[in-house]
């Protein structure tokens, strides 16, 4: 009996139906389609999922809204998240978590993907894969923010490729791997299509999401531009959703866009939305507050950061909290059953990769992805082909080894030509070799 009790104590968060990505949609294990009604939840810069008492207080308020997802941008992979994740699971709330930090994120101005970044991403995945209510992970958030930022896109995809390979090598559940994009008109829909166009599933995202603040105040489906977002996403081969939304100018926030996202205009294509954000801060996007601003007061404990109290009794911000509650209460799309959708999913064709254009999208769709340790460096003299030989047709981008010095140059009009696919096989061989060495050491 004691042994059984000890085993029970060692179990992870309460079991809930897992979420999977099939074709262009998310599904629960029972085959019901999953739509996100999510909240961005980052109470403290380091990790909001390590304070069980606060998690439970916040969950009670989230339940009032009908929340079934949270997004957390930064976590400590070495902390214990069991109690918070279990409490969220009990409430039917799933987690979408970012794998990067401020120091390991992929940079638009100096694109690279190295072992240090990969190791940290793996640590976060190692920690959260154990929880059944981990619904997805992000390999980046708004990495590309300008029209000439497309040179960083292959590095986002390289991170997704390697994390998916690591996930599969470790025999983890197929937790979907995706990206959260800034809403940059000059990059639409090229970035969206590039990240999903790979013929090989291992070299494309499992989902794509957008941080969009286009629908402001009393707008409409066409005036806001949501009709164009829908047009660009029609026939998209992987799930797509809003990873941030909820314009706050003019106030109050009415969240009228939710009716379009969850209604007949978009629910056949989009998988829901995540509202930015839970806690009230200087930016006035909060749905709740834990007390008045403490700006100017000396912080006497860890409850106050950046002038705002970060824990306590969550008090709804009026009328924003009530407005969102009223919107979500009437929006419950049923979607399609997995059993009915499987045939359609099997016939989804690959989307066409965007072609590189002078002064526009700067990624060669035929170029291999960067390999671990490579970084982008603009080359105005020649084009480096996959085998490293020069073709003399610059300006274009090349990749250099991990030992190359960092470069931060203007990347306008550059075309990314990167990598050697053989290195991908070396990466997997290295992972396998490390595992064998570990097992041998254990045997000794």
Q: Order of strands across the biggest sheet?
A: 3-4-5-6-7-8-9-10
Counting helices, strands and paired strands, the structural category is alpha/beta
In whole angstroms, the N-to-C terminal distance is 33 Å
> What is the average per-residue confidence, as pLDDT, rounded to a whole number?
84
| Rg measurement, Å | 22 Å
Biased composition (Low complexity): 396-405
Membrane topology: Lipid-anchor; GPI-anchor
Enzyme class: transferase
EC number: 2.4.1.-
Summarize the structure.
By secondary structure, the chain is of the alpha/beta class. The chain has 11 helices and 16 strands.
Task: Write structural notes for this entry.
The longest helix is centred in the C-terminal third of the chain and has 22 residues, at 422-443. The chain has helices at 2-10, 52-65, 82-90, 115-128, 153-169, 190-194, 226-233, 257-261, 320-329, 338-346, 422-443; strands at residues 19-22, 25-28, 36-40, 69-72, 94-98, 134-141, 177-182, 207-211, 240-245, 270-275, 288-289, 304-305, 308-309, 315-316, 375-379, 396-400. The protein has 11 helices and 16 strands. The chain has an 8-stranded parallel β-barrel with strand order 3-4-5-6-7-8-9-10. Strands 1-2 form a two-stranded antiparallel sheet. A two-stranded antiparallel ribbon has the order 11-14. α8 (257-261) links the parallel β9 and β10 (270-275). It has 444 residues and is of the alpha/beta class.
């Amino acid at each position: 009996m004691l042994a059984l009790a000890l085993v029970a104590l060692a179990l992870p968060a309460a079991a809930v139906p897992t979420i999977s990505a099939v074709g262009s949609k998310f599904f629960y294990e029972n085959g019901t389609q999953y739509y996100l009604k999510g909240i961005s939840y980052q109470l403290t810069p380091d990790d909001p999922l390590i304070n069980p008492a606060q998690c439970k207080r916040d969950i009670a308020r989230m339940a009032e809204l009908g929340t079934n997802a949270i997004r957390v941008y930064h976590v400590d992979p070495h902390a214990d998240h069991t109690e918070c994740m279990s409490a969220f699971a009990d409430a039917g709330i799933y987690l979408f978590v970012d794998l990067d930090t401020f120091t390991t994120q992929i940079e638009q101005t100096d694109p690279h993907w190295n072992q240090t970044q990969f190791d940290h991403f793996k640590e976060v995945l190692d920690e959260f894969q154990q929880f059944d209510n981990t619904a997805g992970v992000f390999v980046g958030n708004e990495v590309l923010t300008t029209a000439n930022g497309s040179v960083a896109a292959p590095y986002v995809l390289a991170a997704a490729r390697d994390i998916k390979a690591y996930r599969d090598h470790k025999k983890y559940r197929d937790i979907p791997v995706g990206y959260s994009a800034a809403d940059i008109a000059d990059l639409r829909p090229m970035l969206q299509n590039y990240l999903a166009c790979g013929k090989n599933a291992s070299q494309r995202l499992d989902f794509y999401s957008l941080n969009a603040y286009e629908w402001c105040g009393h707008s409409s489906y066409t005036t806001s531009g949501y009709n164009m977002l829908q047009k660009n996403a029609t026939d998209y081969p992987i799930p797509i959703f809003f990873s941030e939304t909820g314009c706050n100018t003019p106030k109050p926030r009415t969240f009228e866009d939710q009716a379009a996202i969850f209604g007949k205009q978009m629910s056949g294509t989009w998988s829901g939305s995540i509202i930015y954000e839970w806690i009230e801060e200087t930016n006035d996007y909060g749905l709740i507050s834990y007390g008045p601003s403490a700006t100017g007061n000396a912080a006497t404990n860890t409850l106050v950061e950046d002038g705002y109290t970060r824990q306590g009794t969550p008090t709804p911000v009026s009328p924003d909290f009530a407005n969102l509650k009223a919107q979500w209460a009437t929006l419950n799309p049923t979607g399609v059953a997995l059993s009915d959708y499987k045939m359609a999913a099997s016939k989804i064709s690959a989307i066409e990769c965007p072609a590189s254009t002078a002064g526009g999208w700067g990624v060669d769709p035929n170029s291999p992805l960067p390999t671990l340790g490579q970084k982008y460096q603009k080359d105005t003299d020649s084009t480096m082909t996959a085998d490293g030989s020069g073709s003399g047709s610059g300006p274009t981008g090349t990749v250099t080894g991990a030992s190359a010095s960092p470069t931060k140059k203007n990347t306008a009009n550059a075309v990314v030509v990167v990598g050697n696919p053989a290195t991908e096989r070396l990466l997997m061989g290295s992972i396998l070799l490390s595992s064998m060495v570990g097992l041998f050491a254990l045997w000794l």
